[in-house]
Write a structure and sequence with these properties.
There is one protein chain. With about 375 residues, this protein is an alpha/beta fold. It has two domains: about 170 residues, Rossmann fold (3-Layer(aba) Sandwich); about 200 residues, Up-down Bundle (Dehydroquinate synthase-like, alpha domain), CATH 1.20.1090. Helix content is about 50%, strand content about 10%. The protein has 15 helices and eight strands. It has a six-stranded parallel beta sheet, sandwiched between helices. The protein is globular and about 65 Å long. The model has no long low-confidence stretch (mean pLDDT about 95). The structure holds 5,6-dihydroxy-NADP and zinc ion. The site of zinc ion (ZN) has 6 residues, from helix 7.
Length: about 375
C-alpha cells in the first residue's frame, strides 16, 4: 500500500427511524438560522418536509428554504444558495436529499464565505476554500456516498463542464433507510450501481497489487450485488435497503481508498457526457464501464482477473480469459438489473456530443493505462 494519513470528521447516524433523534440532537448544537436545502418535490410529497419543519420549530430555529436543487446541480444553483445564506445570516445548512442536494450544499457552504468565484479559484488558481458554513446531511436517496466526503460534482452550464469542486465535510450524516423507501426503483438501481462503480474505480487504481483496502472492497462489491438483487426481488426488504445504504457510505468514506491512488476514469468520462446531455449518473456509468474495461484488458489483466474471481465468481483458463469473463459478468449484471448498455437507450444519439465529451473529460493519472481522447471517443461510439 502507499503511505497515508487518515482522519475522518463525519459523525454517522445509521438505522431505520434514526432521523428524528439525529436532527434533534445535532441541531440543538448549532446556531438559530438554518437553511433547509432540498430537491425538486419529493421531500414535500413524502411528508418528510413537514416533519423536519416541526422538529426544527420545536428547537426554535428560523428556517429558510432552499428548494428546487436539480439532479446534476448547476453552478447557478450554487450561487443562488450562497446568496440566500448571506442574506439570511445562515448559521447551519441542513441538506436533505440525494447526491445532488448534498453536493450543491457543500459548495454553497464554501461560496457563501468567499468574495471570489469558487470555480475560478479552483480551476485557475488551484486554491481550496478554507472557511465554511457548517452543514449536516440527511440522505433520502443512497448510492453516491456524497454525504461522506468533501468533493462535489457541479455542472457549469455556460462552460459546458460537469466537474469536481471541493467544499467542507458535513459534520454529521443521517443514514435512515426508511427515508429511501419512496425512491423509484429505477433510481435505487442507478444509485446502487454508482456505489459498485465507486468500488471498482477504487479497486482498479494504483497500486494494483492486492492490499487490505482492496480485500475489504471485494466484500463491499459482493454486498452491493447481492443486496441489490434482493431489493429488486422484494422492495420491502429493509435489511437489503439498509445494507446498500451503508455500502454506499463505505465506498466513499475513504476506507477503501486508504493506500491507493484511485482510478475514476469511468466517472470522468461520464461526467463529461453529463455536461452535454444532463444524463442520469448511474445509467451513464453502466454504459461506459464494460467498454472501458475491455480497453484496459491488457494493462489491467491481473486486477480485472482477481475481481472476476472474487466478486463475480468466474474463472477461465488464463488470467486474460478470467478478466474477460469478469467483464462479461459485469455486463450481464447491468442487463439483469435493467440498466442501459447503449446511449440510444438513454436518448443520446448525437455523436458530436460524445466527441465534445471525449475532448473535455479529465484524464486521470490513477487509471492503469491513460487513454487518448480519440480512444475515449471510440469507446463512447462503441456504446451508441
Ligand atoms: O429532486 P427530488 O424531487 O428530491 O427527486 C430526486 C431526484 O429526482 C429523487 N429522490 C431523492 N430522494 C427521494 C427521491 N424520490 C423519492 N423519494 C426520495 N426519498 O431522486 C432523484 C435523483 O436524485 P439525485 O440526488 O440527483 O441522485 P443521486 O443521489 O444519484 O446524485 C447524483 C449526483 O451526485 C453526483 C452525480 O454526478 C450527480 O450529480 N455524484 C456525487 C458524488 C460525490 N459527491 O461523492 C460521487 C458520485 O460519483 C456522483 O458523481
Ligand atoms: Zn459516482
Amino acid at each position: 500500500m502507499n503511505g497515508f494519513i487518515y482522519q475522518y470528521p463525519v459523525k454517522q447516524y445509521f438505522g431505520n427511524g434514526c432521523a428524528e433523534e439525529a436532527i434533534k440532537t445535532e441541531l440543538k448544537k448549532v446556531g438559530n438560522n438554518v437553511l433547509l436545502a432540498y430537491g425538486g418535490g419529493s421531500l414535500k410529497r413524502t411528508g418528510l418536509y413537514d416533519k423536519l419543519r416541526t422538529w426544527l420549530e420545536e428547537l426554535d430555529k428560523n428556517v429558510t428554504d432552499f428548494g428546487g436543487i436539480m439532479p446534476n446541480p448547476t453552478y447557478a444553483k450554487v450561487q443562488e444558495g450562497a446568496k440566500l445564506v448571506r442574506e439570511n445570516n445562515i448559521d447551519f445548512i441542513l441538506a436533505v436529499g440525494g447526491g445532488s442536494v448534498i453536493d450543491c450544499c457543500k459548495i454553497v457552504s464554501a461560496q457563501a464565505m468567499l468574495d471570489k468565484d469558487i470555480w475560478d479559484m479552483w480551476y485557475d488558481e488551484h486554491r481550496l476554500p478554507t472557511k465554511f458554513i457548517p452543514m449536516g446531511a440527511v440522505v433520502t436517496a443512497s448510492g453516491t456516498g456524497a454525504e461522506q466526503n468533501n468533493g462535489a460534482v457541479i455542472t457549469h452550464e455556460e462552460k459546458k463542464l460537469k466537474q469536481p469542486l471541493f467544499g467542507a465535510f458535513h459534520s454529521f450524516a443521517v443514514l435512515d433507510s426508511d427515508l429511501t423507501k419512496t425512491v423509484p426503483m429505477k433510481q435505487v438501481i442507478s444509485g446502487a450501481f454508482d456505489t459498485l462503480s465507486h468500488c471498482m474505480e477504487t479497486y482498479m487504481g494504483k497500486p494494483q497489487a492486492t492490499n487490505l483496502s482492496d480485500e475489504i472492497n471485494e466484500a463491499v462489491m459482493r454486498n452491493v450485488i447481492s443486496n441489490l438483487r434482493c431489493l429488486i426481488q422484494n422492495p420491502d426488504d429493509d435489511f437489503a435497503r439498509g445494507e446498500l445504504m451503508w455500502a454506499s457510505a463505505m465506498a466513499e468514506n475513504g476506507m477503501l481508498k486508504l493506500g491507493k491512488q484511485t482510478d475514476f476514469q469511468c466517472h470522468m468520462i461520464e461526467h463529461a457526457v453529463g455536461a452535454y446531455t444532463d444524463c442520469n449518473h448511474g445509467q451513464g456509468l453502466a454504459v461506459i464501464h464494460p467498454a472501458l474495461y475491455r480497453r484496459l484488458l491488457d494493462a489491467g489483466t491481473e486486477k480485472l482477473a482477481r475481481m472476476a474471481e472474487t466478486v463475480w465468481g468466474v474463472k477461465g483458463a488464463t488470467s486474460k480469459k478470467t478478466a474477460m469473463q469478469g467483464i462479461e459478468a459485469l455486463e450481464a449484471f447491468i442487463r439483469e438489473i435493467g440498466l442501459p448498455t447503449r446511449w440510444c437507450e438513454m436518448g443520446i444519439t448525437d455523436e458530436r456530443l460524445l466527441r465534445a465529451a471525449a475532448d473535455t473529460c479529465f484524464i486521470t493519472p490513477g487509471c492503469c493505462r491513460q487513454l487518448t481522447r480519440d480512444e475515449i471517443f471510440e469507446l463512447l461510439l462503441e456504446c451508441m
